[in-house]
Amino acid sequence: MPLAPTILLAATGATQAASLPLSYEAALQQALSRNPTLVQAGLDVEAAEGVALGSRGIFDPQLTADTGLAGSRSESVGQFGETRSDFNSLSWGASINQYTATGTSLSLGWANSRNTFTYELLDIPGFDPVSDVQFDSRLSLSATQSLLEGHRRASNMKMVRDAERATDMAELTAQATRQQTLSDVATAYWGLWYQERLVEIAEQSVAVATEEERIVRARVGAGDLAPVEAARVRSAAVQAQQLSIEARHAAAGARDALLLLIGEEPGQNVALESRPAAPEDVRLDPDRFVSDALGNNASLQVMRLAEENSRMSLADARHRRLPQLSATGSLALTGYEASQAAAVREMLDGDLPEWYIGGNLSAPLGNRVDRGNVLSAQADLGRTRVERESLERAIAQQVRAQVRTIESARAQLDLATLNLDLATQTLAADRALREAGRAIERDVLESMKNLDDARVSVEKARADYALALVELDRLSGAL
Q: Does residue 10 carry a pLDDT above 60?
């Protein structure tokens, strides 16, 4: 038996005059786009996606370009007397740096400079300053690789993984919010439907009580009944009017609650265009619904994701117990000539190479911090596993209980329908007996009250059955 929300839809035979016609399916669809809580959950997902995108930036190549002009003047005393020296340098260059998920740091750079040396002998009259211009061009490549801690890709991707997991968590939370919101809208819709039925019943009771009062007053005036009967039916009529007022107030409150859930302004009139469908004669399979719930329940998926996060955090904590060992290698080609072109050619020819190979080891003695983090991560994984298992059992129990609730609600509706037929026949019989002088007005008034109660019970049983189906859909993740 399909239990999607559309199972509850059936068009009403009469069209209500209202400013906002609203079917059950339309209420659910409008809530998906306008419910404030759902809109906020969607924005939370967008924010998490932005954070996830930004977290990947740690692996983006970084381009750096620089230029600068520097100068200095100095004096010294040497073999030819006092000497003044001027140094001016114009430098420019660019480099690309990148850190990869394998724990590798790469750097490729090209640096250039134009250096001018000018000196003059101050103690020698007529000595012209001498200038020397040199160009320096340098191309370098270096790489550093983590060999122990930091070489594991999953560990290096932790920040990205955490951000992506946060996005997944936001999406699952939004899904859980969606299902809860749809459940709330369904509850509000059928709750309003029930309250409006109570208003109809109350208004019918007022009309019946008013007519009963007219008949009894006429019979009292004719001497067929005692005057106390007039007071009795008057009290019943006033009580019916009071119940009608209370029913209208309750319906107005239920109407505003529904309007707020679907993103509408409260205070509007609403014409409900759907009514609960009649129960189908199909036996529900609890095992199938339990299986669906264990696979689709949003709250359970959130807990499973939390457990997976804890498992990954434990793997990262174990990896960080390793010492830090890295290997570094670099190669540079240099050119140093009187012109820029000559310096570049010399650099590319590789006549002036530089290279370096080395390593670095760092290990905390005792390593209590990392070992403590492992113990904490193990405990956290155990906690989330217990919570997930407990939630699975709880959901399975709730689904089975809800199936029993649906079966009970259907039986209650059948019983309420039979009681309504009985109450209708009893009132007709008591009125006939009263006309024949074999029953008093109090018996008729009691039968009228029993009929109203039976009508209320039928409408409540219909609403309860509809809401029981909605709750099973929510638990099963079918909303």
A: no
